[in-house]
Design a protein that fits this description.
Length: about 425
């Protein structure tokens, strides 16, 4: 459970640093003289590099373990967060957003670490909760960064200097959390990978080198890649444009626009967990097929609710529709990673890395729509919603062999039996 809490907190801060600049983009736009196309480019940059970073970090987790991977990522990722205030023009700002995007790979480590720490009857809930509470950082950022900016401005500095100073705060948090993760966690319940390999309790690193290719050759992994792009990719896009969308369309001030945009991310405190929880329940009742069918249902509802949100022209209705959309998009994310741990246990890091990269690929694809000068943000959101509906049938490609279904059914029964036995003894039964 210590690992559980450290993973979600680390991911929370990673999200905070990743999107800390988003609610202040109106000031950055005026300060650096950015055009709509250039803003679109920075949105794409903030998520594009994460595609490569997630592919690499998944392989790295299989090789060196999540503890070392997370610690290094947090410490190194804190540097561009603290230094983005040094940007003086579009080009340097773009480079800093590109560098900051590497922090987004923290999601893969979060999901990997809880996947190896928890039993199959609760792994979906554990994955969804750590990711959801981490994603909540995107909502808290929308609300807190304008407040931090206000505090900085109260010191007597101007807005041009204020947004630069405000970004140092999340960077410092990331830096120290990296050291805490190194000293307070371990790779899996049995210990750290390095010691386990030395003791012969785990396959050597030479065996894990082929894990990425094993994952890449599985068409189900790429189906989940697209599906995750259609849910988490859209959440990333909304995190980037929500405050600006409300600021421009409904003529709100920066703080109010950030507050409303923050509601979208705050839904993660329970919405993503619901996706993982019901994914587990469907898995217990109907097997792996049940997990997949639930994922398809919430994905379809996500697309329909996004179309609805895009058509709302009054503030009250727009906020209500956004909350409904937020519920389904985050439940879909949780449901997706209640399926991922069962695709290939021997290449878990690589599978999680590829699927996680799909989220960023989806955000990049969506980001191009927001670069088009002739296309309003509302029209872009409607097109994205239609695309999500069209992607939903891909869930039928995510199938499992009868042998795998039977193996996982026996593993599930064993986990439930252990849980019941430990409950009778009064012992916590979450970890396998």
């Amino acid at each position: 459970m210590r690992t559980f809490h450290l993973t979600w907190f680390a991911f929370f801060l990673a999200f905070f640093g990743w999107f800390g600049i988003a609610p202040m983009m109106a000031l950055v736009r005026d300060d650096l003289g950015l055009t709509k196309t250039q803003i679109g480019n920075t949105i794409i940059a903030s998520v594009a590099i994460t595609i490569l970073a997630r592919l690499l970090i998944g392989w790295l987790c299989d090789r060196i373990g999540p503890r070392l991977a997370y610690s290094g990522l947090l410490v190194l990722g804190s540097i561009p967060v603290m230094c983005i205030g040094l940007a003086q023009n579009y080009e340097t700002f773009l480079l800093f957003r590109l560098a900051i995007g590497v922090i987004g790979a923290s999601f893969v480590i979060t999901q990997y670490h809880t996947s190896v720490m928890f039993a199959p009857n609760v792994v979906g809930t554990a994955n969804a909760t750590t990711a959801g509470w981490g994603n909540m950082g995107g909502g808290v950022t929308q609300m807190v960064m304008p407040l931090l900016l206000t505090l900085v401005l109260m010191l007597g500095v101007g807005e041009t200097f204020g947004w630069r100073v405000a970004m140092v705060i999340p960077g410092v948090g990331l830096f120290f959390t990296g050291f805490a993760y190194y000293f307070l966690t371990q790779d899996c319940p049995e210990g750290n990978y390095r010691q386990m390999r030395a003791a012969g309790k785990m396959a050597p690193t030479s065996v894990t080198n082929g894990s990425f290719m094993d994952a890449a050759k599985d068409y189900r992994v790429w189906a989940l890649f697209v599906i995750y792009g259609a849910c988490f990719g859209i959440e990333l896009t909304i995190n980037n444009i929500a405050a600006l969308y409300y600021y421009d369309r409904f003529e709100l001030n920066l703080a109010t626009a950030g507050l409303i945009a923050g509601l979208f991310g705050l839904m993660n405190i329970f919405a993503r967990t619901l996706g993982g929880f019901f994914g587990d329940k469907f898995g217990i009742r109907f097997g792996l097929k049940g997990r997949v069918m639930f994922m398809g249902g919430v994905l379809l509802m996500e697309g329909l609710s996004l179309v609805l949100f895009s058509q709302m022209a009054t503030l009250f209705l727009a906020v209500g529709a956004m909350i409904i959309f937020s519920l389904f998009v985050q439940m879909t994310e949780g449901a997706t990673f209640s399926v991922v741990p069962f695709i290939n246990r021997k290449a878990l890091g690589s599978v999680a890395g590829i699927v996680g990269a799909g989220g960023n690929a989806g955000a990049v694809a969506a980001g191009f729509l927001f670069r088009v000068e002739s296309l309003t943000f509302a029209d872009a959101l409607m097109l994205i919603g239609i695309a999500v509906v069209a992607i939903a049938p891909l869930v039928f490609l995510v199938r499992f062999s009868p042998q795998t279904e039977e193996e996982e059914r026996r593993a599930m029964q064993g986990a439930l039996a252990r849980r019941m036995a430990l409950a009778e003894e009064g012992t916590p039964a979450a970890a396998d």
